[in-house]
Write a structure and sequence with these properties.
alpha+beta; 495 residues; Outer membrane efflux proteins (OEP); 2 domains; 4-stranded antiparallel beta sheet; two-stranded parallel sheet
Length: 495
């Protein structure tokens, strides 16, 4: 359907306006649908709802994210104090001094050891050996090993999160987005029917005024002919000046009526052109303008199945979908107060790293685990929110029931108006037959001189009124059929 509409619209764009002066009701509907901005907006809403449904489905899949960062600090973290660093840096000197003091103390307390050549050889060997330097280097290496150098820190990681159970929230969201897409389609159908209804009203308004224009022209011709006859009869002395003036007044009134009808027809065609997206200044002619007598087939108004009407009315389907959406919102609200379980895994790397002491290298590790969150106490907040969501769902149900009642009334009213318009058309045809016969007799009597000019003018007025009532009755039949189709939910481009 969509491709057909755009194809026809393209044909009308590339074809000169002069070649498309004759427009049918179907072509006007097609052009109006292709040109209407509300229809385009509703089509984009369908696309938006469709992509939102796809986005909701991705919540079933794992979520993978990567993070990275860099931080520069004024000072680095230190595991050792300045005193400890100084002590470790001079540990050799301290140990050498302590050893010398120990030897001197030992010799002071035990002077006999000085007489032992073996002991004194060991003491002399220790005194001649430089132990302070290697121990100082060892202490400094320990100080360097404990240096963190955390002034420049780099970190990065990749995290995978797979929801296992979130209280049914994901499933509810997927149902909501599915219903939302269907709701957007039903709203599109509603907009489509509104555009068709507006187009039909404008179309038949143009047809009605075009028929009344022809009627006004014919009426003016009749009066002009009567005026000519009156002038001849006045010259011969068979009528009065009063009759001549009465006819002239009627001629002027007919000319004014014709002018009003022509202006109204021009404005109505402009409105139709605006709905169809055509240039307002270009002349158009409707197919039914050329029809002398519209072919009318009264719509069937008996045995209307209201359940079938409910299934075709987009308003009912929209409220049903809205009711389903609010029911799923109850599940979403309830899920916020149920336990949630998720599987998590990640890999994290830092520089400097601490897996092998402090190193200026990127090193990392992976981890995996399960996270469980259980709401414990919220002072009844969850219960209140669930009850509020249930109340909103009941509101949509009441709205649905109320709309069904109004639609049933609308269908019955539309069916009654169709029957009423059909009866009025039958009566208008009978009145027109009588008005035609009355006008024929009046013209014949006027020629024979047995009927005055005022009686002829009354017959012309009655004939004009009967013709106008017939036109109005025919248009009413057409429009009431359209209103009935709209009420039944059957108004589309194919009917």
């Amino acid at each position: 359907m969509k491709k057909l509409i755009y194809f026809i619209w393209l044909i009308y764009l590339v074809t000169p306006i002069s070649a498309q002066e004759l427009l049918s009701l179907d072509s006007c509907r097609t052009l109006a649908i292709a040109n209407n901005k509300e229809i385009r907006i509703s089509q984009e809403k369908i696309k938006s709802a469709h992509y939102q449904k796809k986005a909701a489905f991705t919540n079933y899949l794992p979520n993978i994210s990567a993070t990275g960062g860099y931080m520069h600090s004024q000072k680095e973290l230190s595991l050792l104090s300045n005193a400890q660093k100084s002590a470790l840096g001079s540990i050799g000197n301290q140990m050498s001094s302590a050893m010398q003091n120990g030897i001197q103390g030992l010799l002071t307390q035990m002077p006999e050891l000085t007489q032992d050549p073996q002991f004194m050889g060991i003491i002399q060997a220790l005194s001649s050996t430089d132990l302070a330097t290697p121990l100082n280097k060892l202490g400094n290496s320990l100080v360097d090993a404990f240096r963190t150098d955390t002034r420049n820190i780099y970190a990065g990681g990749i995290t995978l999160t797979q929801p296992l159970y979130v209280g049914g929230k994901i499933r509810a969201y997927n149902k909501i987005t599915k219903y939302a897409e269907q709701l957007a389609r039903q709203q599109h159908n509603t907009d489509l029917q509104d555009v068709i209804l507006s187009t039909d009203q404008a179309y038949w308004q143009v047809v009605s005024l075009a028929s009344k224009k022809k009627l006004a022209e014919n009426y003016l011709k009749l009066l002009e002919k009567l005026e000519s006859d009156i002038n001849k009869m006045l010259t011969e002395g068979f009528t009065t000046r009063s009759d001549e003036l009465s006819v002239k007044v009627k001629v002027n009134e007919a000319e004014m009526v014709l002018t009003k009808v022509e202006d109204g027809l021009s404005l109505s065609k402009m409105l139709l052109c605006q709905l169809c997206g055509l240039d307002l200044s270009k002349p158009i002619t409707l197919k039914d303008e050329e029809v002398e007598d519209l072919s009318l087939t009264p719509a069937a108004t008996k045995d209307i199945n209201m359940e079938a009407v409910y299934s075709t009315r987009p308003e009912i389907r929209s409220l049903e979908l809205a009711n389903q959406i609010y029911k799923q919102k109850i599940n979403v609200t309830r899920s916020e107060y149920l336990p949630s379980v998720a599987l998590m895994g990640s890999y994290m790397a830092t520089n400097p790293s601490v897996f092998n002491g402090y190193e200026k290298k990127f090193k990392g590790m992976w981890n995996i685990g399960i996270m469980v969150q259980v709401p414990v106490w919220h002072w009844g907040e969850g219960i209140y929110k669930v009850k509020a969501a249930k109340a909103e769902a009941r509101i949509t149900q009441y709205q649905l029931d109320d709309t069904k009642e109004k639609i049933e009334l609308q269908v019955n009213q539309s069916a009654f108006k169709v029957n009423e318009a059909t009866k009025k058309l039958i009566m208008a045809n009978k009145n027109l037959e009588k008005a035609d016969e009355n006008l024929r007799c009046a013209n014949l009597g006027f020629k024979e001189g047995v009927i005055t000019a005022s009686n002829v003018l009354e017959a012309h007025t009655a004939w004009l009124s009967a013709q106008s009532e017939k036109i109005d009755a025919q248009i009413d039949v057409k429009l009431t059929e359209v209103y009935l189709q709209k009420a039944l939910g059957q108004l589309n481009i194919n009917n």
